[in-house]
């Protein structure tokens, strides 16, 4: 029944599938495999590590024998290496941690990768990141948040090998230090930068290196960030022209009154829960009335 559908409709269905679905479907028969390899499905599909049908469990039963999955994994990669070269999107399944062997075998095949999400991957160190950016020079979006083994040297590798990168998330890592970050922002057209919980940065220095291309900046959970630092960023953006969107949730030194004042300075959107940290009676009443009750708050 499915084989009788027009090829255009089959192509549209294939483009909604993940890489794992395409791998399994291409093993049904020769015709399906031929059709999928000549469609645009692989370029539009997402490779979900841990849910893709490629990365297997450590040991796999095959009849009465137990074989190591690396043999099956390697055979699968060889069979679909040409198709994997067209994959552009990669994400990590929740609570899945890629092994170093799987990483070393898979990444060199993804030469056309555009978006990569390796958040919370324990295998990701400076050496693995260097392999990633060398193998995937067309990266536009990279998320390595919560990869706690990365150091500031990772930013130099990203700057050198990813000239097209516009979105970078290095939250909860030790990457963000003054010199590497200034080097990256000076050479790449970064539009979004995630820097949640960046404890090693000098905030007074940050406003001086803000490029005009940066339009969204996530600075959540930075206890040393103050309204003075934000004001310097906003004034700098006002001189550069354009708009800026800041996210400063859970920054203890910011109060609701300061955030409201900063919103009046320039063309800046600030997302914050700063009223939670301002314990004045007026701020508490405003917060309750705005978020917890409907209508005016009675005395």
Give structural notes.
The protein is α/β, with parallel strands linked by helices and 299 residues long. Helices cover 39% and strands 13% of the residues. It is built from 14 helices and eleven strands. The chain has helices at residues 7-14, 19-25, 30-37, 41-44, 69-79, 81-84, 100-106, 126-135, 153-161, 178-187, 203-206, 227-240, 256-263, 281-292, and strands at 46-49, 59-62, 65-68, 89-92, 115-117, 141-143, 167-169, 192-194, 216-218, 244-247, 268-271. A nine-stranded parallel β-sheet has the order 1-4-5-6-7-8-9-10-11. Strand 4 (89-92), helix 7 (100-106) and strand 5 form a beta-alpha-beta unit. Helix 8 (126-135) packs parallel to helix 9 (153-161). The model is unreliable at 56-72 (pLDDT under 50).
Low-confidence stretches: 56-72
Query: In terms of quaternary structure, what is this?
Result: single chain
What is the approximate shape? elongated
Number of strands: 11
Briefly, what is this?
The chain is of the alpha/beta class.
Attribute tags:
two-stranded antiparallel ribbon, about 40% helix, about 300 residues, about 15% strand, single chain, elongated, nine-stranded parallel sheet, alpha/beta
């Amino acid at each position: 029944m499915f084989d009788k559908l027009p090829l255009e409709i089959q192509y549209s269905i294939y483009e909604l599938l993940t890489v794992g679905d395409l791998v399994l479907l291409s093993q049904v028969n020769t015709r399906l495999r031929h059709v999928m390899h000549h469609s645009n499905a692989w370029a539009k599909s997402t490779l979900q590590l841990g849910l893709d049908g490629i990365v297997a469990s450590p040991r796999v039963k095959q009849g009465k024998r137990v074989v190591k999955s690396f043999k099956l994994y390697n055979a699968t990669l060889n069979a679909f290496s040409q198709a994997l070269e067209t994959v552009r999107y990669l994400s990590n399944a929740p609570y899945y941690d890629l092994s170093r062997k799987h990483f070393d075998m898979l990444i060199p095949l993804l030469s056309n990768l555009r978006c990569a999400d390796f958040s919370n991957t324990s295998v990701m160190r400076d050496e693995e990141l260097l392999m990633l950016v060398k193998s995937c020079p067309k990266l536009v979006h990279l998320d390595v948040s919560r990869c706690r083994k990365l150091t500031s040297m990772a930013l130099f590798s990203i700057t050198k090998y990813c000239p097209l990168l516009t979105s970078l998330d290095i939250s909860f890592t030790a990457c963000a230090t003054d010199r590497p970050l200034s080097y990256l922002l000076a050479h790449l057209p970064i539009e979004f930068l995630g820097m949640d919980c960046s404890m090693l940065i000098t905030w007074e220095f940050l406003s001086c290196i803000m490029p005009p291309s940066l339009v969204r900046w996530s600075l959540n959970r930075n206890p040393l960030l103050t309204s003075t630092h934000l004001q310097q960023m906003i004034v700098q953006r006002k001189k550069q022209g354009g708009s800026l969107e800041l996210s400063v949730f859970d920054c203890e030194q910011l109060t609701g009154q300061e955030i409201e004042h900063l919103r009046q300075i320039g063309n800046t959107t600030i997302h914050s829960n700063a009223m939670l940290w301002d314990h004045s009676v007026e701020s508490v009443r405003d917060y309750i009335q705005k978020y917890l009750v409907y209508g005016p708050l009675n005395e």
